[in-house]
């Protein structure tokens, strides 16, 4: 285990330890994931900010050798406690992907890197993207699911929660292939080098 940034651990650990849960992985999102990523064929996948591990477990079921990382020890413990059965068990790591040594990850390169409901919270988005590009195999896919600002009703207190058009531009710049699909307030991005 590496040392995560104190601010990130403090913020997320408090929420996960208190039992906070986030949007569940649904059939529509699962269909889009399968359509854009395809079968794993035992290739490595990395789930950034894995939370309770739902996406990492789904990748493992698709036959990816999956590693899930999160900066919250409570989230990692929750993910590890939910077994998927023989042959489908992800590796769990407690680390801050924005600051910790990525050379400690189990694979030097990943066919898939996922970032579900996390990108919006990353302060140094360009720095994260540099790290992802370093970790992604040449023919790999960076799968991002994030909320888009302004999609909620103007009376919703979370109306500005998502990423702005400028932040979306940072996310999509420099990739040779960019596919998007919308899910109500969310947008899914399949990005390839």
Structure in words:
The chain has helices spanning 6-17, 27-37, 54-61, 73-81, 125-135, 165-172, and strands at residues 44-48, 65-70, 91-94, 110-116, 136-147, 177-183, 186-192. By secondary structure, it is an alpha/beta fold. It has a 7-stranded mixed β-sheet with strand order 3-2-1-4-5-7-6. Strand 1, helix 3 (54-61) and strand 2 form a beta-alpha-beta unit. It is globular and about 45 Å long. The chain starts with 5 loop residues before the first helix and ends with a strand. The model has no long low-confidence stretch (mean pLDDT 90).
Proportion of helical residues: 25-40%
How much β-strand is present in the residues? 15-25%
Distance between the termini: 29 Å
- CA-atom Rg in angstroms: 16 Å
Largest sheet, in brief, is: 7 strands, mixed
Query: Count of helical segments?
Result: 6
| Uncertain segments | none
Gross geometry: globular
Alpha-beta classification: alpha/beta
Q: What is the average of the pLDDT values? A: 90
What is the strand and helix layout of this fold?
Elements: H1 6-17, H2 27-37, E1 44-48, H3 54-61, E2 65-70, H4 73-81, E3 91-94, E4 110-116, H5 125-135, E5 136-147, H6 165-172, E6 177-183, E7 186-192
Parallel strand pairs: 1-2, 1-4, 2-3, 4-5
Antiparallel strand pairs: 5-7, 6-7
Explain briefly what this protein structure is:
This protein has about 190 residues and is an alpha/beta fold. About 30% of the residues lie in helices and about 25% in strands.
């Amino acid at each position: 285990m590496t040392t995560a940034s104190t601010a990130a651990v403090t913020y997320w650990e408090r929420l996960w330890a208190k039992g906070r849960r986030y949007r569940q992985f649904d059939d529509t999102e699962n269909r889009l994931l399968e359509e854009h990523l395809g079968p794993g064929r035992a290739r490595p996948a990395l789930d950034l900010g894995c939370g309770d591990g739902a996406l990492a477990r789904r990748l493992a079921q698709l036959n990816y050798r999956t590693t899930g990382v999160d900066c919250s020890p409570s989230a990692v413990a929750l993910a590890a406690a939910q077994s998927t059965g023989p042959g489908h068990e992800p590796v769990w790591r407690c680390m801050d992907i924005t600051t910790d040594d990525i050379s400690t990850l189990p694979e030097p390169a990943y066919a898939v890197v996922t970032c579900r409901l996390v990108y919006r919270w990353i302060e140094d988005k360009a720095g994260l993207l540099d790290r992802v590009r370093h970790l992604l195999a040449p023919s790999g896919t960076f799968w991002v699911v994030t909320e888009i600002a302004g999609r909620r009703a103007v009376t919703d207190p979370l109306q500005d929660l998502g990423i702005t058009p400028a932040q979306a531009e940072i996310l999509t710049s420099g990739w040779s292939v960019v596919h998007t699909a919308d899910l109500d307030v969310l947008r899914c991005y399949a990005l390839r080098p």
